[in-house]
Amino acid sequence: MRKNLGLALRQMRLLRGIKQTHFAQLMGVNQATVSRWERGQLTLSPAQQAMAHRLLAAACDSAQDAALKRLVESSTRKVHLVCDRTHRLLAASPSRQAEWRADASEFMGRSLIGYASQEILEAEATLDALGWHAGELSSLEIATGPNTDRVVPILPGRVLWERIALSDGRAGRIVTTVA
Question: For the HTH cro/C1-type domain, which residue ranges apply (predicted)?
Answer without folding.
Answer: 9-41
